[in-house]
Amino acid sequence: MRRRKLWWVVGLAVLAAVVFLLWPVPSPPAPSPPVPVQAARITRENFDRITYEMTRADVEALLGPAGLYATGPANRIKDTEVDVTLHSDFAPGFGPMPLRIHAEDQWCTDQTWIGLHFDKHDHPDYKSWSEMERLKLPPRRVPRILRWIWSWL
After folding, report:
1. What is the pLDDT of residues 51-103, one digit of tens each?
2. In a 3-state reduction of DSSP, which class is residue 107?
3. pTM surpassing 0.70?
4. 104 vs 111, more confident
5. 3-class DSSP string for 6-68
């Protein structure tokens, strides 16, 4: 009789330990996005206003500091890209526009991505714009053992 009680106590302790270790922990709250006003400044209209005569300070006054202002994972929509060379001397020897230029400074929101390349005098000589779409993440799956344990409760 004592032995059976001991097995029940040990079994319940093991079950409690398993449930405790596998219990889903709530994920920490998502970090709050940067100032919403900042994301509202990163638009196609402001992208169209960027010219070669502007300096990096002028661009930052228009768009704000370069950075990631998306509230979650997002992806660029390839069919919406707009690439513009702002200066004819941008890439001597490569023609007016090389195949792909790395944007030095980038502004990214949930809807828009803007990338700029600046020359040695801090003037934007190449700009790129694209629409963004939020990524749909798959739902979290509950481990099979937890579903089994919960089915017995």
Report:
1. 989 999 999 999 999 888 888 788 888 777 777 777 665 554 444 444 445 56
2. strand
3. no
4. 111
5. HHHHHHHHHHHHHHHHHCCCCCCCCCCCCCHHHHHCCCHHHHHHCCCCCCHHHHHHHHCCCEE
Q: So where are the chain's domains?
A: 36-134
Residue 4: partners with Cβ closer than 8 Å, 6 or more residues away: none
- Given a contact cutoff of 8 angstroms between Cβ atoms, the answer to whether 95 and 102 are in contact is no
Q: What percent of the chain has pLDDT over 70?
A: 68
Q: Give dist(CA 130, CA 99) in Å, integer.
A: 16
* Closest of 107, 32, 35 to residue 68, by C-alpha: 107
| Amino acid identity for residue 134 in this structure | R
Q: Quote the mean pLDDT of the chain.
A: 76
Question: What is the spatial distance between Cα 83 and Cα 50, in angstroms, rounded to a whole number?
Answer: 12
- Looking at residue 139, the DSSP 8-state letter turns out to be P
